[in-house]
Design brief:
Layout: E1 10-16, E2 19-20, E3 36-38, E4 44-46, E5 57-63, E6 75-77, E7 80-84, E8 105-110, E9 113-119, H1 122-126, E10 128-129, E11 140-141, H2 142-156, E12 161-167, E13 189-193, H3 195-202, H4 219-231, E14 239-245, H5 258-263, H6 269-278, E15 283-288, H7 308-318, E16 324-326, H8 329-337, H9 340-343, E17 347-351, E18 359-363, E19 366-368, E20 381-389, E21 394-400, H10 402-410, E22 412-417
Parallel strand pairs: 1-8, 9-12, 9-14, 14-15, 15-16
Antiparallel strand pairs: 1-2, 3-4, 5-7, 6-7, 8-22, 10-11, 12-13, 17-21, 18-19, 18-22, 20-21
Helix pairs in contact: 2-8, 4-6, 6-7
Length: 423
Amino acid sequence: MMRRLYLLLTAAVLLSAGCLSEPAETATLALPPGASSTTDDGASSTTAADSDTATETTTTDHPCVVDEDCDDVEICHEGACTFPCGAPYDPGLAAAPLGARTSQAIIEVDTPRVVFIVDKSGTMGSEPFDDDGDPQTAATTRWAGLHAALSGFLEANAALHAGLVLAPSLEAVPEYNAGACLIEPVPYVKAQRYGAYAILDALPPADATSPAIAGATPTRAAIEAAHAHLAEVDPSHARVIVLLTDGAANCAAEAVEPTELFEVYDEAVVDAVADASAAGIPTHVIALDVADAPTPAELDGLPDGVNLYAALSELAVAGGTELANAGDGPALAAALAELAPIIIPCAAAVPAGLLDLDLVVSVGASTYDEIAPEDCATADGWSRAGDVDEDEGTETMLLCGQACADLRSSGEISFYPALPWPC
């Protein structure tokens, strides 16, 4: 039986942390001429060219010498432009050709919705931070270290549906009043496909200091804003909050005096994180070099007598995760990298039988061969998990090595019929 893929397949494959959701209802796979399929009522049907009458090609009226003389989805065969293997030409389904010879099938990976809460309080712009892990080089600021690590992560995982909350907002002021606690009620960047680039545009530059990086630490309001936004997202998508911070929450909504606003820890932030977790939205907490010791009792705009490590660990536990405390830039980059397999697993649910076709598989700008499942940890390519979901009509495709990295960046897997033509 001829096993080629002629028509465009566009499927939304929803990946979540630990599970795969069903493909979009509109996803269809065009069968080769003569192949049989089963309708919803159980009746068997065949494609337009039946197995005993199908022809290798369908000739058009255009003479040719080479493929380039023909329309995109046609090939030059025996001096005439033809549709390969008798596949009917439908401009609405035919994809951009590969070398003017093939149709393309695309599976678009629908990643979890992730909101990054980024602390831009005054200490982020004033406190030193070892951004490169080298004690021989000069330290930068915590903001510069965060900017570098987060930028690298977002560029490598650009396929994320990512959003951004800045805590406090860009309008916050470096003053001992409520203006230091401002939070936008909606994210600066709503969780969206390829939102990484919008986040990078929204962040103050790496070398920013006060007044761009200024204010207090209104973590509770930031969590509530992120939660409210993600609550509007279809819960069939995985939803995640990532908090990047260097301090304890203050700016309690109940505070009356400035000293209550800044010098007292906002314990209700734990409840806000727990509420999000109860709604199926975990919070991953990444700290920037916080101390495992109580803060001093000073009129400095920071909560007094708070063990930052313990407080942020409690937040992480309330969010269903564990605290990552990054002492330098490489550790911060590593903490972010550990999130990648959680929020973008290198697996995709594809239509059952698709991987049995004679295909060229492309992820990003590179093509990859099938490899044995036991080689997935050490080689580049794709493999099969060996499972078939009979109810959903899908099987799991694994992306390995560089193919996994390309998936996290591009968010798409493309399939082309293998050359040469005609069939």
